[in-house]
Design a protein that fits this description.
By secondary structure, the chain is α/β, with parallel strands linked by helices. The protein has seven helices and eleven strands. It folds into two domains: about 210 residues, Stationary-phase Survival Protein Sure Homolog, Chain: A, CATH 3.40.1210.10; about 35 residues, no CATH class.
Length: about 260
Amino acid sequence: MKIFLCNDDGIESEGLRALADVFSKEHDVYIAAPKVQQSGAGHSMTIFRDLTAEKRDYSGAKEAYAIDGTPADCAYLGLLYLVKEKPDVVISGINWGDNMSSDCITSGTVGGALEGLLQGYPSMAVSVTRPEKGMFSYPAELAAKLLPYYLNDPECGNYVFNLNVPCGDPDTVKGLKVTRFDGIRVYNIEFETIQNGNTTTFRVRPAMTKSLRNAQGTLENDVTADDAGYATVTPISWDMVVKKSVTDLKYLEDLTL
């Protein structure tokens, strides 16, 4: 198969290299990834400045490009302009840290995968929830093991296969759960404020805490299952419509505007 890789941690990240190492053993690998860290970029795209793509030598890849843009930029440019070979699947990751529940909205890893989906390709996002250096081989191997099951699903082109792996040690992973979202991730981000005349600079401090609001608290939900030691697969889509509310709000059509 032809595998297209992107990510949000940057082209030099350990997680991306782990994917390239594993998939290049049996497949052709193509890469378009950000030059620098792009975590939190979500599905944003650059439209008001030029973008550059630098071709690089990359172990395990047939072609690799470092782009000064977002993960979605990388997926878009890579799939439509840079890589001439049409891939069989897009894989984004491996992310340093989890991408579960409401975090998927701001996740650059998920954003890259969603752009792949919008361009018509089955797409997978892969993340490690408790990352440590040197621990990305197993998550990459697990992604490779699960990929055929995803591609065998006739609906694979309609959702992103969002895989979160608790850690890089297979002996401590209890199993796999297919899950839904599990509430809203709430972050307490501390800023140092620096005043310079009429300008206020907000400098992010390293300390950050997070909590989960409206948690469902079952093993059918991603954060709870992850906390219990399971790898999770959550099928996610671009469709953000609350379908029940479409029905509930139909009465608005009778209003005179």
